[in-house]
Amino acid sequence: MQQSTLSGADAIEAERFRQFILGVTDYAIYMLSPEGVVVTWNAGAQRFKGYPPDEIIGRHFSMFYTPEDQAVGRPAYALEVARTTGKFEDEGWRVRKDGSRFWASVVIDPIVDPHGELLGFAKITRDITERRDAAEQLERAREALFQSQKLEAIGKLTGGIAHDFNNLLNVIINGLELLKMSKDPAVVTRSIDTMARAAQRGASLTQQLLAFARQQPLRKEAHDIGRIIRSFEAVLRRALPDDMNLQLSIAAELPLALIDPTQFEAALLNLVVNARDAMAEGTELQVQVDVAQVVLAERQVEQLPAGDYVRVTVRDDGMGMSAETRARAIEPFFTTKGVGKGTGLGLSQVYGLMQQCQGALTLDSTLGEGTTVGLYFPVDHDGEAAAGNHAGGAEKVLLVDDQPDVLETAITLFSHLGYEVLSANNGEQALETLRLNPDIAILFSDVVMPGMSGVELGKMVRDEFPAVKIVLASGYVESALRDQVPDVDNFELIAKPYRLSDLIKKMKAL
Questions:
Q1: How many whole angstroms separate alpha carbon 108 and alpha carbon 122?
Q2: How far apart are CA 389 and CA 236, in angstroms?
């Protein structure tokens, strides 16, 4: 490296600086020639690289690199970047004299004279192996904690689901026993109604889980929320013990709101059950439905556009929540209930419903003073009421399903709607039936069947009988079904389990 002429005072100062650099022990600080040859060597470099000055000065700095880095020209690349950009910074493995490796933080700066000529490089290296190891250990600990939390969440979810489904199965099993033993028509009717509600609750719970796992989109339609709640009132009252009172207050002439009625019923039942578990005996639960106007200037509800909303308020006088519990209330799997008594999905599912409806959920609770949950649903100013009670019509429909019980139930439902029903157990039989009955208007087929799938059947029917309307049914979530069954989007779909009202809407849409 070129030497420059210094005055006496400057020379003394330069020597002091050189001695200072040479005495630093925590950093390897040394100079390189323009070609990368080591020119100076300080105590820090000797301490953690292992070479005394007489063994290293005059040798190329690439000897500190691993064979892998040398093979790809990493040392030359480092000098070129420093020369052309003004600095090179990097982290990587370096090699000590004894062959061991350490993780280094490296900075290389070019040194130029006043005319811009390159004189060499200043190189600073730090041994940060301990810091890197600590960071890796912390990351491993975080990952282990994350896995532990996931297992805990899965355990809570499994326990809660098992509890919920055991209750539903208990209702159905007891109902079947009553049907066997009783000849009283009133008892039979009540048992059938109770089992139907339990089965529908199980279907709703399954749909919640599928929506949670796959983010299944809601089927938003314009509905009268007051009418839905009135038709669902009996179920809400049965969810409460006899010594708890449910007070409904529903405003007259409510505007239509965009909701998925099945998901809304499940969400409302979740809120009622949560309130029940928080209240003491002999108390009252209030469910109120009215129209709320959100004014942009006031912003009563955070992040909600100004306008009219149908508001459903569930208010209890139970134990309330602490600030800490309220802050975590909508987290998935968070629950204050005992083991096996709740999934921790209830309020998070309600929150998810409101997000998908472009609405909002408000939560007001004070420890010892009860809880109020508000649901804000956007008003559909242009929508029309939901479908009526019967699709009507004497059209001929062909039902196809490989499960006899499912097929028998579908036959009963379609017959109840006034359709003339033909059935088949597989795709080949369905094609034969169609050829013998050219006046069939609708094909209603399961998607997943042995042999010919519903989609394959639909394609063949569309080619051979283009006038036939085609509806496919599946228990899979639509997003998962699209991944597994190509071209399923080319047909009308209905999700299993479907209710009579679902069939009515789908048939009317055809």
A1: 6
A2: 22
In this prediction, residue 510 has a pLDDT band, given cuts at 50, 70 and 90, of low
Superfamily of domain 8-127: PAS domain (3.30.450.20)
- Strand duo 469-474 + 101-112: pairing: unpaired
What lies within 8 Å, CB to CB, of 473 at 6+ separation is 401, 444, 445, 446, 447, 454, 493, 494, 495, 496, 498
For residues 253 and 95, which has the higher predicted lDDT (pLDDT)?
Answer: 95
Alpha-carbon distance values, 198 to 93, 128, 168 (Å): 63, 62, 5
Q: What confidence tens digit (pLDDT) does each residue in 410-462 have?
A: 887 787 777 888 888 899 999 998 998 888 999 999 888 888 888 899 999 99
Distance of CA 482 to the CA centre of its chain: 18
Domain ranges of the chain: 8-127, 134-212, 217-378, 396-509
**pTM for this structure?**
0.40
Q: Considering the domain 217-378 in this protein, what is its CATH number? A: 3.30.565.10
Nearest to 401 by CA among 442, 446, 431: 446
User: Strands, E, within 186-283: which ranges?
Assistant: 221-223, 245-250, 257-259
Q: Which fold has domain 396-509?
A: Rossmann fold (3.40.50)
Q: Which of 362, 358, 364, 394 is nearest to 377 (CA)?
A: 358
